[in-house]
Design goal:
- This protein is α/β, with parallel strands linked by helices.
- Among the domains are: 82 residues, no CATH class; 110 residues, Lambda Exonuclease, Chain A (Alpha-Beta Complex).
- The chain has 9 helices and 7 strands, in the order H-H-E-H-H-E-H-E-E-E-H-H-E-E-H-H.
- The strands form 2 sheets. Strands 3-4-5-6-7 form a 5-stranded mixed beta sheet. A two-stranded parallel ribbon has the order 1-2.
- Strand 4 and strand 5 form a beta hairpin.
- Helix 3 packs parallel to helix 5.
- The protein is globular and about 50 Å long.
- Bound molecules: iron/sulfur cluster (SF4).
- The site of iron/sulfur cluster has 14 residues, from helix 2.
């Protein structure tokens, strides 16, 4: 059976084939995690829980939401594993970043009755071709029926960088999700792509035409063909190397695969599932 692709898998290949090899060919576990990703996970899980409560008619107070975030932050924080890359910033800064994100979101959307939740952290699977040889999957932060009847594919961002509209109109990740969501909810439904930039308290959106989605499918199929034909995985140093969980394994930085993994014992340490 063909492997299932994801936006993350495609992006990793585009950015650095060595990292792609570590993660998707050798299936090695990462040896560290950037604190930005760690905070993002904590914020995502708290917002998922918030909407679960809202769905049961039990809107939690902001203080409860922040308490939950702090409790999860402490429970999951592993100083040996979490990497703080940016000079001059510390754990307290990043904890506060997550609090700010949640504060902003809560105050903007309270009492959370402006739309209807259709799915939370929902996995979407779909094929790019009729024969099913190009399978994709992804996880949508929140799928929503907006007041105007449109379906929204919502994504939470905890980073401070906000792309301009042109970049959002070219975004591949949510556009791919649209293909899967349209299959589930009906391709005739109007669909909007929505990004919540939580740290800056800004919401951005974009739409895709049917023609744009067909072009996207063709582009991604061509990229998957390229990945399948690839046999060489050179390292490509880039601006994200300091955040790479394989840097200690990477030959571009004088690293090597630890003996335990090189000998195939990585099966005893299952890699984190990454889509
Ligand atoms: S450290 Fe940089 S060059 Fe090495 S695998 Fe990671 S992303 Fe690629």
């Amino acid at each position: 059976m063909s492997e299932i692709y994801s936006h993350s898998r495609l992006s990793t290949f585009e950015n650095c084939r060595k990292k792609f090899e570590f993660r998707y060919v050798l299936k090695l576990p990462e040896d560290s995690e950037g604190i930005e990703a760690f905070v993002g996970k904590r914020v995502h899980e708290v917002l998922e829980r918030l909407y679960e409560f809202v769905g049961r008619g039990q809107t939690p107070k902001l203080e409860r939401v922040i308490d939950r975030y702090n409790a999860n932050f402490d429970a999951h924080y592993d100083a040996e594993r979490i990497r703080i890359v940016k000079a001059g910033l510390d754990k307290a800064f990043y904890r506060a970043l997550g609090v700010r994100c949640l504060n902003n979101f809560y105050r903007r959307h309270y009492p959370f009755d402006g739309d209807e939740t259709l799915g939370l952290e929902q996995r979407v699977r779909f094929d790019l071709d009729p024969a099913g040889e190009y399978a994709m999957q992804g996880i949508v932060d929140r799928i929503v029926r907006a007041r105007d009847g449109a379906i929204e594919i919502q994504d939470y961002k905890t980073g401070s960088w906000i792309p301009n509209q042109n970049k959002l109109d070219e975004d591949r990740q949510l556009a791919l999700y649209q293909i899967g969501v349209a299959e589930e909810y009906g391709s005739g439904e109007p669909i909007r792509l929505v990004w919540h930039y939580l740290a800056k308290d800004r919401t951005c959106s974009s739409t895709r035409s049917a023609e744009e989605l067909e072009t996207l499918k063709a582009d991604v199929i061509a990229l998957i063909d390229k990945i399948r034909a690839t046999r060489e995985f050179p390292a490509t140093k880039n601006a994200l190397c300091d955040w790479c969980g394989y840097k200690s394994f990477c030959p571009a930085f004088g690293g090597d695969i630890p003996r335990a993994h090189a000998q195939g014992t990585s099966a005893q340490t299952p890699p984190r599932v990454s889509t």
